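User: Show me a protein chain along with its predicted structure.
Assistant: Here is one chain, sequence first, then structure tokens.
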Amino acid sequence: MRAQRWIAEVGPENAAFLATRSRTAVLASEYRPRDLGDGRVAYDERSLGAARELSEEEEGAITDDGDGLRVWVGDDAFDLEEQG
């Protein structure tokens, strides 16, 4: 069975930030988002779960509401699309 993965196009600076300097970036590797290059960041089930624990005011927070699943950096929200 293939693991689920969610990808967002957030721009190169935001992808690097989420993968290396956000609060979840200091967790064990399986709980960190991955910078895929080309301004994309990926979350698997564990890293998505860790990011969901962030408060809405924190960089890298995840929301899942009527607008869909999104990751936040500052005042900008980026849609996470499920892959597999």
